[in-house]
Specification:
Layout (H helix, E strand, L loop, with lengths): L7 H13 L13 E4 L14 E4 L1 H7 L17
Antiparallel strand pairs: 1-2
The chain binds zinc ion.
Length: 80
Amino acid sequence: MTGRTANRRYRAERAAVLAVSDVCWLCGERGADTVDHVVPYSHGGTDNRANLRPAHRSCNSARGNRAPTRFADLGDFGDW
Ligand SMILES: [Zn+2]
């Protein structure tokens, strides 16, 4: 396994996020099977759950590393 997404902390945080909600923060539909980084790694984001939101793999890959401005108003996940 390669890259930071393979680490144990990321997997634990991803599971915690998906346990709270499986609503994709990018398209608003249920069934999210992974998480998206609000601030991408390439912009200094971390694996903390405060930086993670549920997402479909397809939505996640479609977004890529673009800045999250388009999605800034989507989702209310409280005080994570
Ligand atoms: Zn989606």
